[in-house]
Design a protein that fits this description.
four-stranded mixed beta sheet, alpha+beta, 28% strand, 9 strands, three-stranded antiparallel beta sheet
Length: 173
Amino acid sequence: MRQVQVILLQKIGKLGSMGEIVNVKPGYARNYLLPKKLALRATEKERAYFEQQKEHLAALYQERQKAAEGVATSIEGTWVSIVRQASEKGSLYGSVTVRDIASALGNNIAHSQVLLSQPFKEVGVFEVSVSLHAEVHVNIFVNIAPSIEEATAQQEQYQNRKKQSQEAPPPLP
């Protein structure tokens, strides 16, 4: 299988960190890494360019990380209530997606930063991870309910259960 070599300009999940030369599939490089300026092709010219710009890129990376940490402190543990119509059994008529959660969080969060394996289709309280930067992740709570009153009640129940589980003595062996 054909691979291309790219130089990463920032840390990317399971691929590698800044400055590493990694092998990726051509489509991944062409359609994602290169257009988003996350990597450069690993040619001699691009390697020389990277070496010149390395310190500037590292400073820019640190600046973005600090900005993400600032946002993280403001949204860590935030409760987001989303009101949706639901059946008697608690199934939603529709679903709550990453776009819904991102818009409820505000303008500074993109829907691509909300990490969700699949949309929520039930009423309840869910813990959701938000990736603000390659190294900055926070957890928020998403409360999905058919009305504001029920959302408030669900939040209180959830917090009471958390307190009880923390206060409970450990089971005897």
